[in-house]
Each structure stands twice: as C-alpha cells, then as structure tokens.
Amino acid sequence: MESFSGIKEGEQRMFECLVCAFYNQPYNIASHDLLALTELADYYCALPAVSRSLDGVFFRDADFMDTLLVEMSKSLLAVLLQAAVKLRHPQLYRDCLVLSIGPWIVLLSKGLRKGK
C-alpha cells in the first residue's frame, strides 16, 4: 500500500467541503483550492452536487473573485477554467474565460498588487 504524499490538512478540508456540498451546508473555499475540490468530487462522482453548491460559495464569499483578481495569473485561470468545464458551472466558466482572454490581465494584476 502506498503512503499518502500530499498535505493531510488540505485534503481533509476539501473532503469537508465535499460533504458540505452533499448536504447543502455553507462552506468557503479559496480560488486556488477549487481544482482540488473538483478532482475530489470527480473521484466520488459528486460533480453535480459541488457545481450546484458553488453558487452559494460565490454569493457568501464576495472576496472570491477579488482574490482571484489579486492572485491572477494565466496558470491559475487555466486551472480554474478546467475546473469550470469539468463542473459545468456557467458563471465560473464565463468569468474565467473573460479574464483569461482579455488583454487587461497584466494591467489588472499590476494595478491591484500596487493597491490602485
């Protein structure tokens, strides 16, 4: 049997979010953890439940998109775009697509990091 090589606390947190999505309980998630939650949901065949619960996450955590803009990079947006496609979540897909193809990605990231 192979030993676990990841971060135990992070995996436990993602499993907790998955269970909350199953039972319609509120939870918060960071933008960079969304792919881990998507992979876990895919493993447990729970993509529809997680996709439905993301609307609540976005509504409760108004800083989700702000955090995404501050931490914005092409690689993060590509990862989130993959998660949005796998989850079939239209709002997340549109937002990531618009941010990833626009020429303002460099301008926004520079401006927000400087506090403008």
Explain how this protein is built.
There is one protein chain. With 116 residues, the protein is mainly alpha-helical. It has one domain. Helix content is 72%, strand content 0%. The chain has helices spanning 8-22, 34-43, 47-60, 63-70, 74-87, 90-101, 105-114. The chain starts with 7 loop residues before the first helix and ends with a helix.
**Number of helices in the DSSP assignment:** 7
Which of globular, elongated, flat, extended, rod-shaped describes the shape?
Answer: globular
Provide mean pLDDT, rounded: 80
Taking the alpha carbons of the first and last residues, their distance comes to 52 Å
Strand content: under 5%
Cα Rg: 15 Å
Measured as a percent range, the helix fraction is over 70%
Give the ordered list of helices and strands: HHHHHHH
**What are the low-pLDDT stretches, counting only 5+ consecutive residues below 50?**
none
Count of strand segments: 0
Quick one: biggest sheet? none
Q: How many domain modules?
A: 1
Q: What class, by secondary structure content?
A: mainly alpha
Write the layout of secondary structure elements.
Layout: H1 8-22, H2 34-43, H3 47-60, H4 63-70, H5 74-87, H6 90-101, H7 105-114
Question: Gist?
Answer:
The protein is 72% helix and 0% strand.
Short key terms for the protein model shown above:
single chain, mainly alpha, 7 helices, 116 residues
